[in-house]
Design a protein that fits this description.
Number of helices: 5
Distance between the termini: 51 Å
Order of helices and strands: EEHEEEEEEEHEEEHEHEHE
Structural class: alpha/beta
Strand content: 15-25%
Radius of gyration: 30 Å
Largest sheet: 7 strands, mixed
Oligomer: single chain
């Protein structure tokens, strides 16, 4: 399934049906009178967050969602049928924006969350409503209320506990593949990852979700590269894992490039808890490792962790450090199964 995190949709709620002008005319009935029924209400357009979706690809093939109009009222005090509603099923984490792409109408962060995007028009009154002592044969009715037409943008921000950051080829996809069942594309050229990947990792009987996004480059906040458009997927993360390529000749500059892009992106992204890891240590000898670690710790001003995703060196320690930064209510606990006593 292709990944799509931005979609434009056109919605329109149904118009209400018009009221009916009718009079009761039956044989052997001495007094008739008005009996026009009301029009039915128009259908509404609603969005609901559902489970099992992690892309907006469905909205690439259908962009127009028009609810049904209400039926007009009829004689014999019969009310018109209400128009059918339209429900937009979106993944959890979807932001619904107005046409300007800035005004947030709703943020669908919870499962089964529901929001009304366009309410259907009310049905008009039939002439029965206008009967009075001084007007016993009214010949007027109300038209139905018009529907609401809107243009909206859907922007998906994946719900993940950990977000992976780093330059292209820093080893993010390799780490995700080594610690989860996810199988992202891995190759020795930049921008192998073209869209975010999610993986569920487990450590110490706890599971949490890790998001791997395309690599960032210098100037990404100005539109260079492809990673900046996916930074929104790590806005909701509890902690960021910053991977630095230990084989790079500019380790300190690589680190500062990513931090600069986080700060330029804005919001609270740069202030989130962050764990920095020197990756690919299996490709370094002792002297190279010591120099690389010294250079990175000098740039950060703090200790860094060492890891090799390919050799699975210290991956468990890194996962435990990430787990310590995640609130308990975000983590799924796996109870330890006690072994049944042996029986002959």
């Amino acid at each position: 399934m292709k990944f799509l995190d931005l979609a434009k949709v056109y919605i329109r709620s149904g118009a209400g049906g018009g009221g009916c002008v009718s009079f009761r005319r039956e044989k052997y009935i001495e007094f008739g009178g008005p009996d026009g029924g009301d029009g039915g209400g128009g259908g509404s357009v609603t969005a609901v967050a559902v489970d099992g979706l992690n892309t907006l690809i469905d909205f690439r093939y259908q962009q127009h969602f028009f609810a049904k109009n209400g039926q007009p009222g009829m004689g014999k005090q019969r009310t018109g049928k209400d128009g059918d509603d339209i429900v937009l099923r979106v993944p959890v984490g979807t932001e619904i924006l107005d046409e300007d792409q800035e005004t947030v109408i709703a943020d669908m962060t919870e499962l089964d969350q529901r929001v009304e995007l366009a309410r259907g028009g009310n049905g008009g009154w039939g002439n029965l409503h206008f009967k009075s002592a001084t007007n016993q044969a009214p010949r007027r009715s109300n038209p139905g209320q018009d529907g609401v037409e809107r243009t909206l943008w859907l922007r998906l921000k994946l719900i993940a506990d950990v977000g992976l950051l780093g330059l292209p080829n820093a080893g993010k996809s390799t780490f995700l593949a080594a610690t989860s069942n996810a199988r992202p594309k891995i190759a020795d050229y930049p921008f192998t990852t073209l869209h975010p990947n999610l993986g569920v990792v487990g450590v110490d009987n706890a599971e949490f979700v890790v998001a791997d996004i395309p690599g960032l480059i210098e100037g990404a906040h100005e539109g260079r590269g492809i990673g900046v458009r996916f930074l929104g997927h790590v806005e909701r993360c509890a902690v960021l894992l910053h991977l630095v390529d230990g084989t790079s000749e500019t380790i300190a500059d690589d680190y500062r490039t990513i931090i600069g892009e986080l700060e330029a992106y804005g919001g609270e992204l740069a202030n989130k808890p962050r764990i920095t890891v020197l990756n690919k240590i299996d490709a370094l000898d002792e002297e190279q490792l010591a120099n690389a670690r010294f250079e990175l710790e000098k740039a950060i001003g703090d200790d860094v962790m060492l890891m090799s995703s390919v050799a699975r060196t210290n991956t468990t320690e890194v996962l435990r450090a990430l787990r310590a930064e995640i609130d308990d209510d975000r983590v799924r606990q796996n109870p330890v199964e006690e072994e049944a006593p042996w029986q002959p």
